[in-house]
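User: Design a sequence. Structure:
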């Protein structure tokens, strides 16, 4: 019985003393899952065509895209990314393919991450993500070459943040 009570007391103290991710001001602790923010980017032309879809003229396939960040010496460090197919949540459908990565780095001093996107032979775009710790940190704003990018709205925005690069 004493062992049982000791285990109960230890579990109670660990549960009360542990900071949870969803508590304001709390941070990660040993019992919090490690999750990184997701970055979703739809690339479309002025006519609204999906430039990540093979069926669109002038589209980019994964081999023509480079996503990278620069290290302290200015060398390009590749970022792993994928191309997500169109999806739906309930009745609402999202019709664009998405460039997706979860390799986002939170800098507590600037609360930003800067990565570069090179499409084909074009000069790279500088993507500056404003990150906000909100239980777990997330991308709150995207600047593409220092101009604010369009952010998706509607019911889908409740589930996933999508930004648009219009070419």
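Assistant: Done.
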């Amino acid at each position: 019985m004493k062992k049982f009570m000791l285990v109960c007391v230890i579990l109670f103290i660990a549960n009360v003393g542990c900071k949870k991710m969803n508590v304001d001001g709390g941070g990660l602790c040993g019992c919090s899952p490690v999750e990184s923010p997701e970055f979703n980017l739809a690339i479309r032309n002025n006519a609204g065509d999906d430039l990540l879809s093979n069926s669109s003229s002038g589209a980019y396939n994964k081999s023509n895209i480079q996503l990278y960040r620069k290290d302290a010496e200015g060398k390009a460090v590749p970022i792993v990314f994928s191309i997500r197919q169109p999806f739906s949540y309930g009745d609402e459908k999202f019709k664009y393919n998405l460039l997706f990565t979860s390799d986002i780095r939170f800098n507590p001093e600037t609360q930003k991450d800067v990565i570069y996107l090179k499409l084909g032979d074009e000069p790279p775009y500088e993507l500056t993500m404003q990150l906000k710790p909100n239980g777990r940190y997330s991308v709150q704003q995207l600047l593409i070459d220092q101009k604010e990018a369009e952010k998706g709205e509607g019911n889908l925005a409740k589930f996933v943040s999508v930004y648009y690069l219009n070419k």
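The first helix runs from residue 2 to 17. Confidence is low (pLDDT under 50) at residues 21-25.
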